[in-house]
Design goal:
Blueprint: E1 15-19, H1 24-36, E2 41-46, H2 49-58, E3 71-75, H3 81-87, E4 93-96, H4 103-108, H5 110-130, E5 135-141, H6 150-164, E6 175-181, E7 183-185, H7 191-200, E8 206-208, E9 214-219, H8 220-231, E10 239-242, E11 246-248, H9 249-256, E12 262-264, E13 276-278, E14 286-288, E15 292-295, H10 303-309, E16 313-314, E17 321-322, H11 332-340
Parallel strand pairs: 1-2, 1-4, 2-3, 4-5, 5-6, 6-10, 7-9, 8-12
Antiparallel strand pairs: 9-11, 10-15, 13-17, 14-15, 14-16
Helix pairs in contact: 1-8, 3-5, 5-6, 7-9, 9-11
């Protein structure tokens, strides 16, 4: 699974802010940016002081000012617009990764999910416009397509907020786009660490919700490179969707712990059998750009975006990009190689 081309992206001398920066994506993003660019500031915005402390130690940052890194840490919550506005002063680029992501948690705590994922999205938009931030890229999920759970519905609402925000920025330079992708291999709370924990605990079986279940998969490194590649391509209003392989969840279990039998335990509340990254309704506005799809807004915010779209090929009307109908599948050998990197 190759990473995406970031050669057109230039973050040297830029001020960058990452919401949810202590999460799996945020840490990987910061590591990649620090290894490959020379930003003026790379600001980690998150609400958990312990995670910030641990990340600061891992990245060689200290609060005495004797560090040699552009990394900065900013305690705050996306629910707090005023704090976001302070954090975004003189920022050029925002990557919005903060979210409540766990499906069962959102089902049991619906208003908390709304406050972070929906109200938080509005706060990011308003803070970015107020500070004349140049580019905002928001991370989304395949669960936002035809959602059946609150997490997916909240991310669909957030996506709509970010796309419509291009109407609000007016003559200011701020432009908003969305990146949508599938399950991240090895991220905190994902299925591979879960299976490995059961394996190390000597479990009698690995629970599988349904042996037909499929998902799109992307590595952390791929996710980071995809977001970075989109930063250089955004003109405002796009939803970028990478072309990813699929794999059955039961094959993931067999690859992680082949010695442990699996047991079907039933689908959890709010869980789909298969995921979709492009719906039939979106196909009318979708272009095949080679290594990704690009969904353009029904109301265009940029004449430049029309020119970019014309470099791609319109997909057939009625096209669906679903995990069980995918042309690309992860082989067992490929998965073994991937496990070595997680």
């Amino acid at each position: 699974m190759k990473c995406f081309d970031v050669s057109k992206t230039d973050l040297n001398g830029k001020d960058i802010l990452v919401t949810g920066g202590t999460g799996s994506f945020g840490r990987a993003f910061c590591r990649f940016v620090l290894d490959n660019f020379k930003p003026r500031r790379l600001i980690v915005f998150s609400r958990d002081e312990d995670k910030q402390y641990l990340m600061a130690n891992d990245f060689g940052f200290n609060y005495t000012g004797t560090h040699n890194t552009p990394l900065r840490f900013f305690i705050g919550d996306v629910r707090d617009r005023e704090r976001l506005e302070i954090a975004m002063r003189d920022v050029d680029c925002v990557v919005h990764a903060a979210a409540l992501k766990h499906v069962p948690t959102a089902e049991y705590n619906p208003m908390e999910c709304i406050r972070t994922n929906v109200n938080g999205a509005e706060n990011v938009v308003n803070a970015a416009i107020a500070n004349n931030v140049e580019t905002v890229v928001a991370l989304s999920t395949d669960k936002a397509v035809n959602p059946i759970n609150l997490y997916g519905a909240s991310k669909l609402a957030a996506d709509k907020i970010f796309i419509a925000a291009n109407n609000l920025s007016g003559r200011r330079r701020t432009r908003f786009s969305v990146v949508r992708y599938g399950n991240v291999l090895g991220s905190r709370g994902s299925v591979i660490p879960f299976f490995r924990k059961l394996q190390s605990d000597g479990a009698d079986f690995l629970p599988i919700t349904d042996d037909r279940m499929t998902r799109f998969w992307i590595s952390l490194e791929q996710g980071v490179s995809f977001v970075l590649s989109c930063l250089s391509e955004t003109h405002g209003g796009e939803i970028f969707v990478p072309k990813l392989p699929s794999m059955k969840v039961i094959d993931i279990a067999k690859g992680v712990a082949p010695e442990i039998p699996t047991k079907v335990v039933g689908i959890r509340p709010g869980e789909k059998l298969h995921e979709m990254m492009l719906s039939e309704e979106e196909s009318r506005f979708t272009y095949d750009m080679g290594d990704r799809y690009m969904i353009v807004p029904e109301i265009s915010f940029s004449s430049r975006l029309k020119e970019v779209a014309q470099r791609g090929t319109p997909v057939e009307e009625g096209f669906q990009y679903a995990s069980h109908k995918n042309e690309r599948w992860i082989t067992s050998e490929e998965f073994k190689d991937m496990l070595c990197l997680i």
